[in-house]
Amino acid sequence: MSLESPKILVHLPAHVKSNRDLLRGFLKFASSTGRWTCEIVGISENYENVDDLRLIGQPDGVICYCDGTPTARRLLALRVPMVEVLPDIPKRLKPPRGLRAQVVCGSASIGKAAAEYLSSLAPASYAFAARLPSTHWSRERRHAFTEALKGRKVELIGVGRRGGLATLAKKLATMPRPVALFAENDRLARAVLSACTQQSLAIPEDVMVLGVDDDEILCETVTPPITSIRMDARECGARAAEMLGQLMLGNRPARPILSYSFSRIVERFSTSINFSTGTISEKACRLIAHRLERERQDGSLHVQTLVGQLGCSRRKLEMVFRRETGRTLHDEIIRQRTRKALQMLSDESYSLDAIASSCGFASPSHLGKVFRAQFGKSPSALRGKGIK
User: Rounded to whole angstroms, how far apart are CA atoms 25 and 14?
Assistant: First the structure.
């Protein structure tokens, strides 16, 4: 191996959200070395020829998603330092031998976090939904979820390939409402929303739905958007790259198994409180947050929009809101825009253009002007600082 410029093969198929995050973390570390050459293979298995690997030649290191595809089998047969990413954890996980390490998903903390979050919403009943046949990671999430809710009944609902979602929705219709449902991942959470709609179950009034992965495409292209658990896979990807670097130097780590798990709850409106409850000010604040989830650069969020949806005069709304909160409605809109922008700044994958657009600012310069007026600093200076 040339330690000056090692060649790395990376197999992390893009249809798995955690793989995409692992890949981002891995490539960020690889880029920071300034020396690694990375070849991405099998990212879209059906459109790539496994024989093309022969043209790449012998790599110095590999990170491989062990999904049983021809690409994975070919890579796993190579006798080079390697980080194996396991789609599921076997019943008896054995530490890898030789110059190899493994990446697994630690689902216990995910199930516990789901229980803590959903119980804070004070639902009337709880449910856990999983595809059948179940996987080890799904069972681990279910176990941690039910253990954290000991003393409270949790309805366990398996979703089979035929009629499973219809059966799930009918079961939910018989349970005390609102039901707090924890779905094993975002794909199932999205399917649950569709099934509930067909059964005339309102989200979140009748069923509050929480998923896992924070896959923006799945969570934000459905009504209402899905609250989800984000994992720290990106950070794990960087650690995996660092470990692969040590393996390529012949150094076997004392702990060759890395784990990614719960990072935070990304709250959307599949778990939000009904807009018809609370004071006018509370409803206005929730409605502002709700519309911010959908707003882009069209500037669709303004005071008159709130007036129309809350069913009261503008004068009454503005007077009551200022009396109850000490702020104007315009101030609240700006406050929530900047709060959302601060949250997005914690993720370095978002550009200032994307943040400004997503949060309803006319341009990055408009975003900067508001930040300097409110915080005395530019958005770039506050990147990664979070909300104070």
Answer: 14
Q: Is residue 272 part of a domain?
A: no
The single-letter DSSP state of residue 98 is S
**For 136-192, how does the pLDDT look when each residue is reduced to its tens digit (9 = 90+)?**
999 999 999 999 999 899 999 999 988 899 999 999 999 999 999 999 999 999 999
Residue-by-residue DSSP string for 93-161: -PPPPSSEEEEEE--HHHHHHHHHHHHTT--SEEEEEEESS--HHHHHHHHHHHHHTTTS-EEEEEE-T
Buried b (16+ CB within 10 A) or exposed e, 225-234: bbbbbbbbbb
Residue 119 and residue 220 share a domain: yes
pTM: 0.73
**Strands 125-131, 179-183: parallel, antiparallel or unpaired by DSSP?**
parallel
Q: Within a domain: residue 208?
A: yes
| Domain range for 359 | 280-382
Residue type at 206 in one-letter notation: D
- Identify the CATH number of the domain in which residue 127 sits: 3.40.50.2300
Pairing of strands 262-266, 227-231: antiparallel
H or E element in which residue 319 lies: helix 314-325
Q: E strands, the chain, where?
A: 7-11, 37-40, 61-65, 82-85, 100-105, 125-131, 154-159, 179-183, 207-212, 227-231, 257-260, 262-266
DSSP 264: E
281-306 residue pLDDT tens: 888 887 788 777 655 444 567 787 77
Nearest to 359 by CA among 346, 375, 340: 340
The tally of domains found in the chain comes to: 3
Residues 98 and 32 in one domain: yes
Cβ proximity of 283 and 310 under 8 Å: yes
Residue 155 main-chain phi, psi, to 5 deg: -80, 120
